[in-house]
Input
Amino acid sequence: MKSIIAPSILSANFARLEQDVLAAIRGGADALHCDIMDGTFVPNISFGPMVVRTLNEITDVMLDVHLMIVNPDKYVPKFIEAGADLIYPHVEAPYDIYRTVQLIADLGVRAGVTLNPGTPLETVRPLLDYVDTVLIMSVCPGFGGQKFIPSSLKRIAELRRLLDEEKPDVVIAVDGGVSNANIADLYRAGARHFIAGSAVFGAEDIEGAVRELKSVVQGME
Ligand code: DX5
Ligand code: ZN
Output
């Protein structure tokens, strides 16, 4: 499959969200990543389905919804209604992740699953009937602009081996501190879906920043 560059709008300027997002799309963004935080699962609050709906109205790209919330089952239908194409709950939250990924898949959108940096990779094994993407956090979730955790590269390579054994079509996504400095290494480790917040929306030239990330991965495909 072709790699995906998914800018995270958490680092966009919300006063000019449309301009920022359209610049990212002109640069070649394949998806927009939406970080949903409830202030309980992670120590930060972000935004909800309304913003996802707005993105759905102003763009045609895939909407990638990362749920950092304690009660995903309650909100999954609302995000689907708002236009989510791929929804990633976390395996660590206090609920039955199996039920959540089943619910997402039953409602007809793509299900993914997210693993925090300290979570054993084995936890994805029983979920592979339902998910087509596993998201590896390469920072502790909650905030944009954090430093990439170097051991994430090894985790991605290990997860790739596990998935190749179990279900080779499952894609690895990576989120946190992704930039031009590490995207080639992440590709080599096995990631194909790259989420980048501050490296895109923190740049003066948003369009150029996406284009650069994209050209690195395209050069490796
Ligand atoms: C962190 C979020 C990330 C974040 C990425 O909890 O899941 O998606 O926005 O931002 P950067 O790329 O700046 O680390
Ligand atoms: Zn995210």
User: Anything to note?
Assistant: The mean pLDDT is 97. Residues 4-218 form a domain with the TIM Barrel fold (CATH 3.20.20.70). Strands lie at 4-7, 31-37, 62-68, 86-89, 110-115, 131-137, 171-175, 193-196.
